[in-house]
Design goal:
Elements (H helix, E strand, L loop, with lengths): L1 H13 L5 H21 L6 H37 L19 H15 L3 E2 L5 E3 H4 L26 E3 L4 H10 L4 E10 L11 E11 L4 H16 L5 E8 L2 E10 L16 E10 L1 H6 L8 E8 H9 L6 H4 L2 H4 L8
Parallel strand pairs: 1-4
Antiparallel strand pairs: 2-3, 4-5, 5-9, 6-7, 7-8, 8-9
The structure holds 3,4-dihydroxyphenylalanine.
3,4-dihydroxyphenylalanine binds next to β8 and β9.
């Protein structure tokens, strides 16, 4: 009897189950017929042999069931693969979703491009600054209102350290570390303690310009900014200077460009004045040159600082500053065609 069990065991091990049909005949033939038939013969076995026969037949049953289960899984898996569409290598690939350059980067890159062509290089400085570079070296008197808490983010632990409030601090670093002639622009992020609105933000971007050499004059400043304005906003753009005050320049001026929307005729963007402000400028105050170790008898220079958001708003007619930082894909996608 045990010999019959061994025989069936061998048969089960050798049987080939490669498709659903073979699987079914295994189920019907072995699981439902041959094994139950062997089991039925337990009755005929001598009582002393019953235990070993029972164990052997249980083992056989388990083996057959396992065999069935594994074969079933393999056939299922084959079926799923066969149901898949055949691989069509001629299909076009999915288009890569290209991002777009952020409008502030577009404007910054354009500014760099314009100034590099006329001999300015790009300089950089830290966003966390000390009082010397952000204020003192730039001729800010100790009690100047811009140093106060409402404008500047100071570090809690050290009131000498703050987030820079303007890129003018990079001017100081440049003058301290290099000898004239100096000709650089310094784009970067700046921070001010202001409530966020359509027209103001606590984080924004400026580009600083500095030119120091012998005999640099106000005329050089005017020509440089005039050239820049025409390259940036179109060849018909006019500029004008309005007298102003900054501690680090003397004389100082605010720079306006003719409104690029109404061509100076007057519209609601320029508030019917025909002019739009883009930044401040002036001749570097001799005190600043001296603070930075530059001989103010020998050298003169001009400086300017312009808002990058401001220029992007004018260039692309964006009415709300917050759009630059909200990451709204519908806004950003509109700059997809610009590749700078
Ligand atoms: N730093 C000034 C500001 O943030 C802008 C500025 C004005 C920069 C005149 C200059 C300058 O270099 O000459 O408002």
């Amino acid at each position: 009897m045990l010999a019959e069990v061994a025989l069936l065991k061998e048969k089960i091990a050798q049987i080939e189950i490669s498709d659903a049909e073979a699987l079914e005949s295994f189920r019907v033939g072995i699981l439902k017929k041959e094994i139950p038939a062997l089991m039925a013969r337990l009755r005929d076995v001598l009582p002393e042999d019953r235990k070993s026969f029972g164990l052997a037949i249980n083992e056989l049953k388990e083996l057959a069931q396992n065999r069935f289960k594994i074969a079933q899984e393999q056939i299922e898996a084959q079926k799923v693969r066969a149901d898949d569409q055949p691989l069509d290598l001629t299909l076009p690939t999915l288009a890569n979703a290209l991002g777009s350059v952020h409008p502030l980067s577009l404007v910054k890159n354009r500014i760099i491009e314009i100034f590099e062509r006329i001999g300015f290089h790009v300089a950089d400085g830290p966003e966390i600054e000390d009082d010397w570079h952000n204020f003192t070296a730039l001729n800010f008197p100790p009690n100047h209102p811009a140093r106060e808490m409402q404008d500047t983010f100071f570090l809690e632990k050290d009131p000498d350290i703050a987030l820079r409030t303007h890129t003018s601090s990079v001017q100081v670093r440049l003058m301290e570390s290099q000898k004239p002639p100096l000709r650089a622009i310094m784009p970067g992020r700046v921070y001010r303690n202001e409530a966020i609105s359509a027209r103001a933000h606590c984080i924004f971007h400026q580009v600083e310009g500095l030119y120091i050499d012998e005999q640099v004059s106000l005329l050089d400043l005017k020509q440089t900014l005039f050239h820049f304005a025409r390259e940036m906003f179109g060849q018909n753009t006019q500029i004008r200077f309005r007298p102003s005050f900054f501690p680090f320049t003397e004389p100082s001026a605010e720079v306006d460009i003719s409104c690029n929307i109404c061509q100076g005729k007057g519209c609601n963007v320029c508030k019917y004045s025909g002019w739009l402000e883009i930044g401040g400028c002036g001749m570097v105050d001799p005190n600043v040159l001296q603070s930075c170790g530059i001989d103010a008898e020998k050298y003169t220079g001009f400086a300017f600082g312009m808002g990058i958001e401001r220029m992007a708003m004018l260039k692309y007619q964006i009415r709300d500053l917050r759009l630059f930082t909200e990451n709204d894909i519908r806004f950003l996608r509109q700059f997809r065609s610009q590749i700078h």
